[in-house]
Amino acid sequence: MTRTRFSRCRCRVSILSLLVGIALSPGARAQSLTTFFNSNNGNSQGGGVFFDLNAVSALTLTSLGVNANVGTANPGSISLGAPISLEVWTRSGTATGFEGSAAGWTLRSTGSGVAAAINTPSQVDITDFVLGPGVTGMAIHNIGYIAQYTGTTLEPPPSLFFSNVDLSLSAGSATNDFFVGGTVRTPRVWNGTIFYSGGFVGPEPGTLALVALGIVGGIVARRRR
User: Fold this and answer.
1) Do residues 124 and 66 make contact, with C-beta atoms less than 8 angstroms apart?
2) Which DSSP string corresponds to 91-156?
3) What is the three-class DSSP state of 52?
4) Distance between alpha carbon 116 and the CA centroid of its chain, in Å?
5) Residue 89 class from Cβ within 10 Å (0-12 exposed, 13-18 middle, 19+ buried)?
6) CA quadruple 159, 161, 165, 167: dihedral sign
7) Is 10 left (phi over 0), alpha (psi -120 to 50) or beta?
8) What is the dihedral of CA 86, 90, 94, 100, to 10 degrees?
9) Quick one: pLDDT at residue 203?
10) Please, which pLDDT band fits residue 99 given cuts at 50, 70 and 90?
11) Who's near 128: CB < 8 A, 6+ residues apart?
12) What is the radius of gyration, based on Cα positions, of the chain?
């Protein structure tokens, strides 16, 4: 093989490797961000959980998966399949230090769903809203259910930061009431999944696979000549 043909072949293999890497990369097509579903604590019905989101670009939040206290001996625990609802409040900048008052917060969305088993996602369809780029403080007001989260005074959460290519989440705190100046417990990690649209979406993996196969076929055909 001449040096020129070898260089061309090596270039094609490099392109193939890049395409396969993109096709197999889960982060490139992420449209959700999950924290934990391994709670060891929870607030009260009507309480709140707080955290910060940092979006790379504008995203549209469409639904949430939450962790509801279902079927336990805890006062306020609900039955499997019971209706749940929530409110989503946001503020410009961090939520930290602003959990005790509604000043500076805006009600952005409401939603409802049905309770799944504890430590599994209870799907809540919310009214879509746009999350702008940069840091946004989030407050999830759990109505009619206890919001399960991770973290206690003696057993802090194993992680406070979660991210993908579009979005990062920094935890967090919780209250047994909502915007009335009660005790703020921290650090606490909201258990849940944020579903959104409008993030980075590369070419379909199937399309990339076809392109990659085409390159392989071209390489093989040329080597047989």
Assistant:
1) yes
2) EEB--TT-TT--TT-EEEEEEEEE---TTS-EEEEEEEEEEPSEEEEEEEEEESSPBEEE--SSS-
3) strand
4) 18
5) buried
6) positive
7) alpha
8) -60
9) 56
10) very high
11) 60, 61, 62, 109
12) 23
pLDDT digits (tens, 9 = 90+) for 7-26: 454 444 344 343 334 444 44
Distance CA 194, CA 64 (A): 5
State the Cα–Cα distance between residues 30 and 24, nearest whole angstrom: 12
pTM of the entire structure? Answer: 0.78
* Tokens at 148, concatenated: 């399960």
Q: Cis (ω within 30 of 0) for the bond into 76?
A: no
Given a contact cutoff of 8 angstroms between Cβ atoms, the answer to whether 195 and 68 are in contact is no
Q: 63 has which bridge partners?
A: 125, 195
Distance CA 184, CA 186 (A): 6
Which string of DSSP letters, residue by residue, matches 23-35? HH-SGGG--EEE-
Please, is 3 exposed, middle or buried when counting C-beta atoms within 10 Å of its C-beta (0-12, 13-18, 19+)? exposed
No. of H helices and E strands in the chain? 2, 13
Cβ pair 53, 168 in contact under 8 A: yes
Length of the chain: 225
